[in-house]
């Protein structure tokens, strides 16, 4: 709930939007000409991936596949190849599947209603609400990590957001949104931008530059626990199964023909870990095994052995 008073956070709408209009980063998916499809693709790519890595890939994708039907017509393997090093490549397969459903069932137009968006493959609550707000200017609370941190500080006076609660977070943001849909959508994107560039977690927040500071209970309380960390640092990437999976996919993306086990051996010399990661890629549908025992991106080899989603490596289980 939002308490009334001189520092009522609901008074922050105009200041946040004015700041955003002057200072927003020039990101390609924010341009007025971008379609709802472009917005949806950007939101999927931006999940757990930095803006600087997404921007060139997003631009190339929209140049190549400006409509869902164009992406749906491509083999899954080519979609994975174009995904490159964005990470979490299952997102590419889900986006490919999503494009097919939009093309077949929605006339090649991304739906505008949250409930309909939620029926699409791979589209969760955040992405559905983001597309409704940013592509269609709907009044739809949009909550990501940055917004949760802004709300924790401005509304609740805490240095960091507590444990995620979807119902609580949606209620907090909904209480701030103005009634007019387009203004609400603009405020939503302004909150995200403020959290990304001013109200940060890893570096000292730039409170002096923040348009919300006079409404922020944390700032007005003297920024208690400003040096506290929200969580332990993320584990390293080197040597993890995620890195090995990426290296194996790099081998397959980098050649037109299926790869032999010997070629994959050169990518990672720990054969037990290599087999475990290869098995997980097979289970996830990111790799298929050809009839002659080699490995390829989906749709780029011969008939897969065994069926999609099954392990082809005896004695190994899925590692996640």
| Largest sheet properties | 2 strands, antiparallel
**What's the helical proportion of residues?**
40-55%
The count of DSSP E runs of length 2 or more, i.e. the number of strands, is 2
- What is the string of SSEs from the N terminus onward? HHHHHHHHHHHHHHHEE
CATH architecture of the domain at 239-320: Orthogonal Bundle
Instruction: State the shape.
Output: globular
Residues in β-strands, percent: under 5%
State mean pLDDT (0 to 100 scale): 86
Structural category:
mainly alpha
Strand order of the largest sheet: 1-2
Q: Whole-number radius of gyration?
A: 22 Å
CATH-defined fold name of the domain at 239-320: Arc Repressor Mutant, subunit A
Briefly, what CATH class of the domain at 239-320?
Mainly Alpha
Distance between the termini: 38 Å
Number of helical segments with 4 or more residues: 15
- Poorly predicted spans: 1-6, 303-320
Secondary-structure map:
Blueprint: H1 13-23, H2 36-45, H3 51-64, H4 68-72, H5 76-83, H6 90-105, H7 114-117, H8 125-136, H9 145-154, H10 166-176, H11 181-197, H12 217-220, H13 241-253, H14 261-265, H15 271-283, E1 288-289, E2 295-296
Antiparallel strand pairs: 1-2
Feature tags:
320 residues; Arc Repressor Mutant, subunit A; 48% helix; disordered N terminus; disordered C terminus
Task: Explain what you see.
- The protein is globular.
- The protein has a two-stranded antiparallel sheet.
- The protein has a domain at 239-320: Arc Repressor Mutant, subunit A.
- 48% of the residues lie in helices and 1% in strands.
- Helix 1 crosses helix 11.
- Strand 1 (288-289) and strand 2 (295-296) form a beta hairpin.
- The protein has helices at residues 13-23, 36-45, 51-64, 68-72, 76-83, 90-105, 114-117, 125-136, 145-154, 166-176, 181-197, 217-220, 241-253, 261-265, 271-283, and strands at 288-289, 295-296.
């Amino acid at each position: 709930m939002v308490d009334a008073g001189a520092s009522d956070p609901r008074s922050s709408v105009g200041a946040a939007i004015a700041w955003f209009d002057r200072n927003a980063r020039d990101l390609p998916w924010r341009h007025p000409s971008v379609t709802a499809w472009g917005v949806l693709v950007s939101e999927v790519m931006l999940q757990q991936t930095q803006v600087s890595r997404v921007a060139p890939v997003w631009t190339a994708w929209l140049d190549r596949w400006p409509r869902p039907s164009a992406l749906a017509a491509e083999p899954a393997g080519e979609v994975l190849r174009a995904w490159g090093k964005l990470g979490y490549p299952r997102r590419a397969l889900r986006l490919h599947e999503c494009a097919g459903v939009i093309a077949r069932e929605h006339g090649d137009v991304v739906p505008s209603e949250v409930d309909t968006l939620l029926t699409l493959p791979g589209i969760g609550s955040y992405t559905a609400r983001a597309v409704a707000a940013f592509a269609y200017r709907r009044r739809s609370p949009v909550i990501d990590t940055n917004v949760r941190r802004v709300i924790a500080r401005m509304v609740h006076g805490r240095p960091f957001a507590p444990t995620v609660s979807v119902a609580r977070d949606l209620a907090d943001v909904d209480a701030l949104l103005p009634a007019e849909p387009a203004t609400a959508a603009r405020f939503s994107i302004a909150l995200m931008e403020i959290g990304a560039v001013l109200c940060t977690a890893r570096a000292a927040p730039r409170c002096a530059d923040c348009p919300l500071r006079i409404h922020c209970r944390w700032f007005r309380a003297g920024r208690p626990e400003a040096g506290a960390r929200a969580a332990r640092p993320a584990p390293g990437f080197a040597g993890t199964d995620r890195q090995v999976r990426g290296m194996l996919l790099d081998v397959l993306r980098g050649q037109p023909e299926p790869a032999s086990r010997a070629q994959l051996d050169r990518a990672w010399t720990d054969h037990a870990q290599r087999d475990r990661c290869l098995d997980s890629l097979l289970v996830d549908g990111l790799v298929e095994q050809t009839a002659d025992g080699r490995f390829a991106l989906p749709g780029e080899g011969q008939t897969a052995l065994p069926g999609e989603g099954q392990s082809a490596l005896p004695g190994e289980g899925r590692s996640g």
